[in-house]
Specification:
The chain has helices at about 5-15, 20-30, 50-65, 75, 80-85, 100-110, 120-125, 130-135, and strands spanning about 45-50, 70, 95, 120. By secondary structure, it is mostly helical. It has a single domain, classed as Recoverin, domain 1 (Orthogonal Bundle), CATH 1.10.238.10. Mean pLDDT is about 85; it is low at about 25-30. The site of one calcium ion has 7 residues, from strand 1.
């Protein structure tokens, strides 16, 4: 009899957790952490700067629906904080042109590559610095 109560509590707890599990699985599938494959056309398992900038250039075009060649804070959304935008915007016009955007990509690439081997591997991509880089590539 003494084990009846703990069992009931455990069962209730499992029931409570169950609905969350499919949601978590969906979120993980939508944003796989450390998955370099989307940015790795030569399939060597890492992202080099050329691959990062090619992906970023594509992302830039996608984010610039009015095709004026610049991204403003609204178009950049959560990818770039206000402080980062200020730093990445040497001409201080409040927007990033493609050259400024790619320079920011290079800065974040360097930050995400502590071993300085010229590439971002899956582990580096899943680091906070890697995630910041990742945001600029899609
Ligand atoms: Ca590669
Ligand atoms: Ca600018
Ligand atoms: Ca590296």
């Amino acid at each position: 009899m003494t084990f009846q109560l703990p069992k009931a509590i455990l069962f209730t707890a499992l029931l409570g957790l169950a609905p969350a599990a499919p949601l978590l699985a969906t979120a993980a599938m939508a944003a796989p952490q450390g998955d370099v494959s989307a940015f790795d056309p030569d399939k060597d398992g890492t992202i080099d700067l050329k691959e990062a900038q090619a992906a970023a250039a594509k992302a830039f075009d996608m984010l610039d629906p009015d095709k004026d060649g610049t991204l403003d804070a609204k178009e950049l959304g959560s990818r770039v904080t206000a402080a980062d935008l200020k730093k990445a915007d040497p001409d201080s016009d409040g927007t990033l042109d493609k050259k400024e955007y790619l320079a920011l990509v290079e800065a974040r690439f360097t930050a995400a590559n502590p071993d300085k081997d010229g590439t971002i591997d899956a582990k580096e991509l899943s680091s906070p610095a890697g995630q910041a880089l990742h945001q600029l590539l899609q």
